[in-house]
Every structure is written in structure tokens, then in C-alpha cells.
Amino acid sequence: MRKIIHRSIKSDNQYKEKLLTWSQQFFEVVWLDSNNYQQQYSNYDAVLAVDAFTSIQTDYYDAFEQLKVYQSATKDWLFGYLSYDLKNDVEKLSSSNFDGLQFPELFFFQPKKLFLLKGNKLEIQYLNLVSDEIETDLMHIESTVVSTEIAKPTEDDAVKIKLRIHKDEYFNKINTVLNHIQRGDIYEANFCQEFYAENTSIKPIEIYRNLNRISKPPFATFLKLYDKYLLSASPERYLKKEGCMITSQPIKGTAKRSSDKAKDDLLKKALSEDVKERSENVMIVDLVRNDLSKTATKGSVKVKELCKVYSFDQVHQMISTVTSDIKDEVHPVDVIKTTFPMGSMTGAPKISAMNIIEELEETKRGLYSGAVGYFTPNDDFDFNVVIRSILYNESQNYVSYSVGGAITAKSVPLKEYEECLLKAKAMREVLER
Fold first, then answer.
1. Residue 400 β-bridge partners
2. Which positions are catalytic?
3. Taking Cα atoms as reference points, which of 214, 257, 259 lies closest to residue 428?
4. What is the pLDDT of residues 255-296, one digit of tens each?
5. CA 240 → CA 136, 344, 385, 397, distances in Å?
6. CB 50 within 8 A of CB 223
7. Cα–Cα distance between 314 and 332 in angstroms, integer?
8. Phi, psi (5° rounding) for residue 334?
9. Is-contact 385 216, C-beta < 8 A?
């Protein structure tokens, strides 16, 4: 079904930039880049999938069942996303908040052309119907000129960011969440707020490059679906399947970085010992263990790492790693359905938290706090969590990014607000620079 060839390339970022630039001619693009971040569970340094041969696009109703049918029938590489609002397919929930982006709630496509990069080895997989284009495409990619200069926006490019929830209103909403916690309705809720710009045009590829340059995250994503774009600097894996093994790596706990190494080491140590941040993380680990147990073989759910602090260019993050084994007959889509949406972006207990979130947030989350990734022909998959991301509807001239934080009984509204601004820093910087 696919013609596969291998090439050796220079193992530098220049070839990656050429691939990404060349991809912009297509209507459907998914680019995933690990930025050479050293991580135990990575298969590729970068992946590019372009040009849909077949695809599925739907709202939340029966979405996972439709995806299951599509994935089973295709048995090929599939790339795409799950929006947060697929929660309405999994549970009796709804989404009625404002949506300025209008992304489909689920989208996957079977790419005609696929590039898998690991070190200096490039694997190229083209569907047979376009396999005669491989050599021509490789020539075009090689000859693509990529500017190494950081794009400087003009006055006309200036993006004026507005807050969907202002500071005083944010404090009121956090206090409402705290009241729910004190009443015992929930233990934790991930409350998010939107920053947005209307009547605004941006250059997605330039914004993505600048965002990636200052963040260098392990789950960076550039996604294009016709006039809709995701420019993501995500540090978080949602879920990975490799054979019978499932891996989830929730993030809970954030601290700023310092250019002074001694101060930076102290900030990292303080995060690792922070009682509130550790309790947030442990609550979500318990939730993930419970979710994974729904498809796991008996006794196979294990916490491989608990509250380990990893450092990224913008922030330190506390990450845990939870694994499980599943039976051969468990469908890959069912593993996703029984864990979606991810606990790190909802709260505990999950359904109560999602109901409270929906009531208090002002914006429909859509693709934000959903997941982008792929299925392989042998039923494996890997998905990130869509955070630290800019979303753009070109037709509507609407730009948006959202940030959130876990609210627990120990939360202080002002500190939560400051953490949101820290998480938003990179997105604001690339849009307003």
C-alpha cells in the first residue's frame, strides 16, 4: 500500500525547517517535533504527514465509535486530533460556551505523504498512487530556501491581546472552585482562561517557529486544516501505545526558570519539595491509574516515576509516568475513550470537575486541552496534550491561546493567576514582539 524508502541526511535543524516550509502547499498538515529532547519513550525526532487521501471529521456525537470504525477499516497511518469537547461523547455533558475558533471536534486523515525522522535517518512512506512523486518532492525539499532570521513584525502585525476573564472576575471564579472543594464536590479542578485577538491576521509558520525557538518542547506541533491552525509548544504527553504497553505522563506542578544557575537549581528543588504541587500531581496520578485500569490486565498499572521535575526552556515541570498492559483484543480507540479527556486538564473526580469547569469557564475549550497525534498501521499510537498553544482561524481572523492551573484546597488565587501568566508568557511574547 505504501512505498517506503530510506535516506541519510545531515542531522541538523535545517532539514526539518525545509520539510516544514515545503509542507505549507498542502491543505492538511501535521508536523510533530521532539526538538531532540532526551526522553525515554520517544520513537522519532520529527514526523511530517501531509495531503489527505481519506479523512474523518465530525462533532462529538458518537465520535469515538466513528473513529474506531475508520481506524479499523483503514489500518494505515492516521494523523489528527481529539478536541476537549469529545467529553460530551464519553459522558452526559455539554459545551455551550463561546467558541471563536470553530474547529471540528474530531479530525483525522490518512496522509498520502509521510516523513519519519530519527537522527540522520529519514524514512519516507508514500501511498502507491503518489509514489512516483518521491524523487521530485525530495528535490524540491532539498532546494527549499529557509530564512534563518527571526521575523520582526511590523506595526501592522501587532497583535492586541484581550482577556476573556479579567483579574477580579478570575479571583471570584477561583473562590467558587474553592467553595466546591470545601463542600466536598471535588478535590481538584483545572480552571482555564482564554486570551484572544479579533480582526487579526498572523503568519502561522513564523509564529510557530518563534514559539518553538524560545520553548523547544518535546511535543511541539504545527497543524494545518485548511484555514485553521494549531501552533503548539506542548511539553506534555497524553497517552502512548506501543504493543500492549500504555504510557501516560501527566504534568502537574510548574515553576519559573532563572538565568542564574544557582537560583535555577533552587527553584527546581523548591518545586520538587512543594507540598501543594506534589499533592496536585498525586491526585492526577490516582485519576490516571483509575482510568488506565479500565483497559489494563489485572495488576499491570504501575507508577514508573512520581513527581519527577523536568526542565524546559521556559519552565520547570513536575511529571509523573504511569504505565499499564492491555489485552490484545482491546481496541486502541477504546484505550483513548476510557481515559479522555486527560486528568491533568480536568480534575478529580473527573465528571464533577468537568461540570464545574463548564459552568465557570467563559470559552469552549475546543482543541485546547485536547490531543494531537497519530495511529500507526499496527494499532500503536502517540498523542500529546494541547497546552502552551496558539490557535488561529484564518477566515475569522481570530487568534486565541488559553492557560489554566489546578485548583486544590491549598490554592491561593493570586498565585494561581501568576502561574497562568507564567504559562502564557511564551505565547504572548511571540504574538506581541
1. 196, 391
2. 236, 252
3. 214
4. 999 999 999 999 999 999 999 899 989 999 999 999 999 999
5. 34, 15, 11, 34
6. no
7. 34
8. -70, -30
9. no
